[in-house]
Amino acid sequence: MTWLQQVAIFAAGIAAGGINTIVGSGTLITFPTLLAFGLPPVTANVSNTIGLVPGSVSGVIGYRRELRGQRTRLLQLGTASLLGGITGAILLLTMPAEAFKAIVPVLIIVALVLVVVQPRLAAWVKKRREDGDAAAPEHGGPILLIAVFATGIYGGYFGAAQGVLLIGLLGVFVHEDIQRLNGVKNVLALIVNGVSAAIFIAIAEVNWQVVALIAVGSIIGGQLGAKVGRKLPPNALRGVIVVVGTIAVIRLLTS
Q1: Distance CA 25, CA 16 (A)
Q2: Which three-class secondary structure state does DSSP give residue 8?
């Protein structure tokens, strides 16, 4: 690997770490970069996932203020993410990537629609619950748990735009400030990436030079992303999510 390639991977790690903390979809920067430099797809995916874990930790630390008072929510949803991440990582190592990648653009588009209509949809869900004299589940209820588990499977398998899916789902089912939900999203993504990385380290082929470059870059990006992300008003944050998610769909469909 030339020094220019190493610089490019390091820079991609910074960008991915920042974007993952604010929105998600950082993998769509690092993964194509690794493929362009000749890494096999599975090795690139595995090495990328491991390398982005330190950046996820950095992003969670950056959002620690927004996570206060959400311990029960994190335990419930985090368990679903953990089980989903394990399932997805195993699928990656046992199934052809094409089988799952075919539905990735559809999942991202659904997530973007959820993000756009989230305020109205959340208000409608809340009204329906109030009209039915049923207390709204504080942490989203069983439907959200199942959806987070399914997103964990996706995240463990491929991971691109996992954050977009999570923030879209959380915004609909949990009546909470979007910045606090973004903090939850970062923790759930970290759990999925972390458990997937542990499995990959144990049984998959890893390019450790790539891991190191992405890891250092993503740590820097995670801190930068937290500083930028928490300053964005709700509508601006939704706008960033939509733009990044749309670019992700276009890149996946044209790759």
Answers
A1: 7
A2: helix
Per-residue pLDDT tens over the stretch 164-180: 788 888 888 887 888 89
Q: Residue 86: which of 206, 198, 205, 211 has the closest Cα?
A: 198
> Taking the model in full, what pTM does it have?
0.80
Task: Please determine, for residue 209, whether its predicted confidence score (pLDDT) is greater than 80.
Answer: yes
Sign of CA dihedral 207, 28, 230, 171: negative
Q: Which two tokens stand for residue 208?
A: 């450790």
Residue 64 CA to residue 66 CA, distance in Å, equals 5
CA atoms in the 13 A half-sphere facing the CB of 43 = 13
Please report which helix (H) or strand (E) contains residue 215, including its range: helix 208-229
- pLDDT for 245 equals 67
- What's the CA gap between 24 and 18, in Å, rounded? 9
* Token pair listed for 100: 């799952």
Ranges of each domain in the chain? 3-254
Model confidence at 122, pLDDT cuts 50, 70, 90, reads: low
Which candidate, 15, 19, 16, 11, places its Cα nearest to that of 243? 19
pLDDT class of 238 with cuts at 50, 70, 90: low
Residue 232 CB neighbours (<10 A)? 17
* Contact call for residues 22 and 227 (beta carbons, < 8 A): no
